[in-house]
Amino acid sequence: MPLLSYDRYGDQILAETEALRSALTGADLTATVPTCPDWTLRELAVHVGGAHRWVGEIVRTRATDDVPEDKAPGFQGPDGDEAAALDAWLATGAADAVAALREAGPDAEVWTWAWERRTAFWARRMTHETVVHRADAALTAGVPFTVDPDVAADTIDEWLRIVSFAQENGDPEAAELRGGGRSLHLHATDAPGAEWLIEFGEDRFTWRHAHEKATVALRGTLTDVLLVFNRRLEPTSQRVEVLGDAELLDFWLDRSSFG
Prior knowledge:
Elements: H1 6-24, E1 32-33, E2 36-40, H2 41-60, H3 83-104, H4 119-141, H5 149-168, E3 182-188, E4 195-200, E5 205-208, E6 216-220, H6 222-229, E7 241-244, H7 246-255
Parallel strand pairs: 3-6
Antiparallel strand pairs: 1-2, 3-4, 4-5, 6-7
C-alpha cells in the first residue's frame, strides 16, 4: 500500500491530536492506562505532547544529531494539573510541530534514529505515535476508537518496518523473529487489500501484502487487527479470530513490543 502524502501526515497529526484531546475531555487524568500501566492518563498525554515538541525542535533547527528532550521548549508538560492547561498544551504542540514540518518540506535532512534522515520520516512517525497512544487514551477513558482505513493500514506497515529495522540492527528480541517454514497472516475483514503476510526465514523475517495460507491468521476489522498487532487488544478477544497456531502470534507479539 502506498504511503500517505506528506501533507496528509501533517493533517493527520492535527486530527489525531484533536481526537486525543476529545478522549481526554472529562476523563479521570489520574487513571492508570491499562495498555501502558506505568503511566496515568495525564502522563500518557504528556508523553505524546512531549514527542510532538521534541520532533518540532529537531525539524525547526534542522538538527543533525539527537536533541536532548529537555532542549525542546515545553517538553515536560504544562504548568499545573488543570485539564484545560493540558488540552491547550497538546493543541499548541501539535500545531507547532506540523507548522515546522510544513515549512521544512518532506526532504529536509534531519537527525532520526532510523533508516532515513529526512523530515518525511518524522511526519509519518508522529502520525502513528499519536494514533496508537490515542487508542490507549480511548481504551482508558472508555470511549470509541476508530481510525481511517488508509491511516490504520499505514500504521501497520510502519510498525513492520520498525520491527524489521530493529532486527537488522541487533535488537535481541526482534532477532528471535526467524525460523523457516512459519508465517503469520493479518487479514482485515472490512478493508479490501488490507492483508499482510509475515514469513519467518532462517535469519530474519520478511513481509508483504498478500492473501495466502499461513501458520496462523489474525482476522478482524482493520481497527481491531491494528489494536492486536500493537498490543492494545488481546488476541483472545471475541472481536478478532485467530486461526491456526496461536502460539506463533503470541511469539511475534512478545518479541515486537520493545518494552
